[in-house]
Amino acid sequence: MRQLFPVTDMTASTASDQGWSPASDREWSLDALADAYAYPEGGGTWLRANMVSSLDGAGQHDGRSQPLSSETDMRIFGILRGLADVVVVGAETVRLEGYRPARAREAFADRRAAAGQGPAPVIAVVSASLDLDFSLPLFTEPLVPTVVLTGSGAPADRIRAAREAGAEVLFAGDGARVMPARAVAVLAERGLRRQLTEGGPRLLGQFVGADVLDELCLTISPTMTAGDAQRIAGGPTVAVPTRFRVASVLEQDGFLFTRYRRI
């Protein structure tokens, strides 16, 4: 994997000592990648998104992101999960991608313990209607209870079904809809401040529209899909485009692993 930006993280002398230049290939250990993707220090809430896009802007192919991915992309996917307190995902993505509970990884055990985190991140599903299959392992067999984020006006029978399945229901809206900023705040109040969203596009668009997205980890896949697939973020256009600055760029096998932070 090559580090393309920032090239100043390793000085020329240090690079020479280790036998590589900042843009040359080298092996990245799990710890090195975890350090590179670490959340900012401090006690504030931080919401990052992890998405993949084709060269022509598709966020998925045949309804799923996996065809755009790679082995390295999935490795970074696992690292981002290993660093997070909570993974926030939309109900449609849960259905399409076949979400399962997050698992504990021994490689992250010490790092998570030192950060005061549980053995695995919480999965938080955003759903207004609660039209979810609560018999799935995501709800019945998680290492830590799955959270369902919904509005206070959600159907009472579906709220009851979620709780009976073992899910924790949190309200992040006064009506049927979930308010993105409220969802971020409700999770943070519960101590889940290192937040990661994996979409889908509709949910990410809502976070962008609410101006609560702090960071985007975007894998640019060297693929072309054509067609009419969704972009990584959907929904209404924001009045003023949100500006981000590039924080880092890695490359492996033609895939670009970029990280942008909101200005």
Describe the secondary-structure layout:
Blueprint: E1 2-5, H1 12-18, H2 30-36, E2 46-53, H3 71-83, E3 86-90, H4 91-97, H5 106-114, E4 122-126, H6 137-140, E5 147-150, H7 156-164, E6 168-171, H8 180-189, E7 194-197, H9 201-209, E8 215-220, E9 244-252, E10 255-262
Parallel strand pairs: 2-7, 2-8, 3-4, 3-7, 4-5, 5-6
Antiparallel strand pairs: 1-9, 8-10, 9-10
Number of domains: 1
Can you list the strand order of the major beta sheet?
1-9-10-8-2-7-3-4-5-6
Could you state the CATH homologous superfamily? Answer: Dihydrofolate Reductase, subunit A
CATH architecture title: 3-Layer(aba) Sandwich
Beta-strand content: 15-25%
- Which regions are unreliable across 5 or more consecutive residues at pLDDT < 50? 11-15
Number of β-strand runs: 10
CATH topology: Dihydrofolate Reductase, subunit A
Helix content: 25-40%
Order of helices and strands: EHHEHEHHEHEHEHEHEEE
Tell me about the largest β-sheet.
Answer: 10 strands, mixed
The global form is globular
- How many angstroms does the end-to-end distance come to? 27 Å
CATH top level assignment: Alpha Beta
Content-based structural category:
alpha/beta
Rg value: 19 Å
Mean pLDDT: 92
Region (Disordered): 1-24
InterPro entries: DHFR-like_dom_sf, RibDG_C, Riboflavin_Biosynth_HTPR
Organism: Streptomyces litmocidini
Keywords: NADP, Oxidoreductase
Describe the structure.
This protein has one domain (2-7, 44-262): 3-Layer(aba) Sandwich (Dihydrofolate Reductase, subunit A). It contains nine helices and ten strands. Residues 11-15 have low confidence and may be disordered. The longest helix has 13 residues, at 71-83. The chain is of the alpha/beta class and 263 residues long. InterPro entries: DHFR-like_dom_sf, RibDG_C, Riboflavin_Biosynth_HTPR. Pfam families: RibD_C. Pathway: Cofactor biosynthesis; riboflavin biosynthesis. Residues 1-24 are annotated as: Disordered.
